[in-house]
Amino acid sequence: MKKKIYLAAGCFWGAEHYLKQIEGITFTQVGFANGNTENPTYEQVYTDLTGYAETVLVEYDSYTIPLRTILRLYFKAIDPTSLNRQGEDYGTRYRTGIYYTDKSDLPVIQEVMAMEAKKYDAPLQVEVSQLKNFYSADEYHQDYLDKNPTGYCHLPIELFAYAKNYKPVTVRIRESLVAQQDLAYRDFHSKLMPGINIERIIGIRTPQLRKLAKDFAKDAEIDDFLSSLPHQYYDENNLHGFIISEIKDYNRTIAEIDRILPYIDNWATCDLIRPKLFSKNHDKLIKDIRRWMKSSKTYTIRFGIEMLMTHFLDDDFCPEYLEWVVSVTNDEYYVKMMVAWYFATALAKQYDATLPIIEQKRLASWTHNKTIQKAIESYRITDEQKEYLKGLKI
Predict the structure, then answer these.
(1) Which CATH number is 2-165 given?
(2) Using an 8 Å Cβ cutoff, are 32 and 53 in contact?
(3) Under a CB-based contact definition with an 8 Å cutoff, are residues 173 and 208 in contact?
(4) Are strands 127-130 and 96-100 parallel, antiparallel or unpaired?
(5) Using alpha carbons only, how large is the chain's radius of gyration in Å?
(6) In CA terms, which of 171, 213, 244, 387 is 20 to 30 Å from 143?
(7) DSSP 3-state assignment of 380?
């Protein structure tokens, strides 16, 4: 997915040369941002009377490098506590700034700003605002250090080598996935996922995904991958889900689930997210389940019902929870299937409490019959119970 961000980092010659080396950044252009005049020249901006900042337009492929990664690398190239100065360059034209055009980028920018602020005793002097205007500098300034390899630059040359050799975690993950691709498995699995284009499926078996999740969960940059939504591939979403299941902190787990749920577009990814720590946090979990079930999004509702089924049909069961599921009115197929699965499991585990709902035919006809079908297929329900349930079909 092609996106843009505008970064002011002092003299734009070195800033552009640094940023253009980074894998996933597809185009850069130097210019002037957020000033007060039209079509400013370099000489006019140099007076510091126009309000412009020397800025680099950065176009990038968000599937290859997320904004969070770009911003972390941006901070490596600036002194974020310095006001209107970078290196030996002084003036408001050399101020640092992050200018966005997509409002959905702002939370990511704020997250990185907060993360970087913790590293310094002094306050950050990086301006963050929506892009007001941007004018390209003349051709002389474009790719300046390519044309003048010994030209002036306030950035250390080592930084350029670092940028050139840097490999985003999203790229490393994708390379690991492709290296374990099983085309036969991809072709078979795609038949189970009618709504997913086969071009979006790499074809990675679950054991390999689980192993990769354990390995990458320890990666110092894994948060960049978790924040880079939407992912390009179905397998990346599944890996993402398995990584969430490795997180040890409840609040962070919930935050990551809330972040990915709006992007889940299939039952398989939804159903594989099974955080281990949920079993020890039922008092907190039940509140989040209720919140998910009240959503309007298909797979958020499905996930909530599945967590209710997984964690609250045994010792912590409460008859009220049956009513929560009865009240779900969403008519999407994968929600209705989840409701049927829930009640079939409830019949197996809490038969006496669940049976009246079936007897009173309180579910929609399709869901009612599907519940009975799935219950009859269960080995946990007695033959006598199965015969009785057969007689309750609509």
Answers:
(1) 3.30.1060.10
(2) yes
(3) no
(4) parallel
(5) 27
(6) 171
(7) coil
Amino acid type, 276: K
Give the architecture-level CATH label for domain 283-394: Alpha Horseshoe (1.25)
For residue 230, is the peptide bond before it cis, meaning its omega torsion is within 30 degrees of 0?
yes
Q: Alpha-carbon distance 271 to 8, whole Å?
A: 43
Type of residue at 145? L
Please report how many Cα atoms fall inside a 13 Å half-sphere around the Cα of residue 315, on the Cβ side: 4
Q: What is the pLDDT along the chain (394 residues), one digit of tens a residue?
A: 899 999 999 999 999 999 999 999 999 999 999 999 999 999 999 999 999 999 999 999 999 999 999 999 999 999 999 999 999 999 999 999 999 999 999 999 999 999 999 999 999 999 999 999 999 999 999 998 999 988 888 999 999 999 999 999 999 999 999 999 999 999 998 998 888 999 999 999 999 999 999 999 999 999 999 999 999 999 999 999 999 999 999 999 999 999 999 999 999 999 999 998 999 999 999 999 999 999 999 999 999 999 999 999 999 999 999 999 999 999 999 999 999 999 999 999 999 999 999 999 999 999 999 999 999 999 999 999 999 999 999 9
Q: Rounded distance, CA 287 to CA 245, Å? A: 19
Which residue among 11, 153, 270, 318 is the active-site one?
Answer: 11
Give counts: helices (H), strands (E), the chain.
Answer: 20, 8
For CA atoms 226, 227, 232, 234, the dihedral sign is positive
Residue type, 358: I
Tokens coding 18: 């640094």
Whether 2-165 shares its CATH topology with 283-394 is answered no
- Provide φ and ψ at 311, rounded to 5°: -110, -15
> What pTM was estimated for this model as a whole?
0.89
Active site residue 11: yes
Q: Can you give the residue ranges of every domain in the chain?
A: 2-165, 167-280, 283-394
**182-191: which pairs have CB atoms within 8 A and are 24 or more residues apart?**
none
Q: How far apart are CA 388 and CA 143, in angstroms?
A: 78
